[in-house]
Amino acid sequence: MGPAQTLYEFLSEASELTIVCHNNPDPDCLASALALGRIAAAAGIDARQVLYSGDISHQQNRAFVNLLDIDLEPFDPAAVQNRDEGSLLAFVDHAVPGANNRVPEGTPVDIVIDHHPGEDIDAQFVDHREAVGATATILTEYVRELAIDLDTTLATALLFAIRRETLGFLRGATRAEYDAAGYLHDHADRDLLRQLSSPSVSGATVDAIATAIQNRTVRGSVLITHVGRTNERDALLQAADYLATLEGVDTAIVFGMLAEAIQISARSTDARVHIGDALHEAFADVGSAGGHREMAGGEVPLGIFADYTSDDTQLLAIVDQVITARLVAGLNLTDEPDDQSS
């Protein structure tokens, strides 16, 4: 029995399903949650909810939720801790309680479907495939094998998620992504796909990207920069995507201060570098970081700098120095930048 049928039979014995998205969910997570909800409905589960924490701040993610009318609810600890018998808890696009989610560590999880690198995954049903390019690819396989009704909304969501997660099939895409896209293609709304691909950008995001461009330094083929303090978390991702296309740059790392934490986003096309491992080694002792060979991120609490200063300008200077030094050491870079524009 394959994983799709195993999952379906597991769901058919339950009465309720709570799907938890990771913090600040992206299209891959959201589309996967939507698909799992549809499979649960087909298996006879009427009581279903999708929870998220953090923000849906990236304009593309907001457009995804709004245009596809995806029903989401803010994370509620009681929904995952006070469950009745027959109530299942599922993770999609993440795997471990307390890691990139607000679920308390040690909480029993029933279903995990994910493609990110990870260890210590514990659930009654686990489909963890690091080799594929998107979690939505796995869910598309389930929808296809189980003959779940593939309406325009579901097909568009899954196809866009696969395209976005693989940067248009240029990052981490496998034959499975192409097979999934071929299946979804005729059912998707192409006008809606175009709308999702080109959402409007806020002025604050443009300002943050401009700051990242101004502050960039380059050592060999590695670009390191920061956006200062910002409320636009996803501006870091967009800045990293954009700066990774700069001529001569194989790896781009962008960080910034958001609320009470330092957020880090990285992109790499250098075959010699596993950027997820590099970030993990650089920041695991002071925060959390990791990801794929080509795409990674991290978070470091600002509290570790609390004894230095309460002045934001001075704090930024210290953060810049410390974070950059850790990146330079972790990537074995030269001390002095080859180019500095600020």
UniProtKB/TrEMBL annotation:
InterPro entries: DDH_dom, DHH_sf, DHHA1_dom, Oligoribo/pAp-PDE_c-di-AMP_PDE. The keyword Hydrolase applies. Its EC number is 3.1.3.7. The keyword Hydrolase applies. It holds the Pfam family DHHA1. Keywords: Hydrolase. This is Bifunctional oligoribonuclease/PAP phosphatase NrnA. It comes from the Archaea. GO terms for molecular function: 3'(2'),5'-bisphosphate nucleotidase activity. Residues 18-162 form the DDH domain. The lineage of its organism: Archaea, Methanobacteriati, Methanobacteriota, Stenosarchaea group, Halobacteria. Residues 221-321 form the DHHA1 domain.
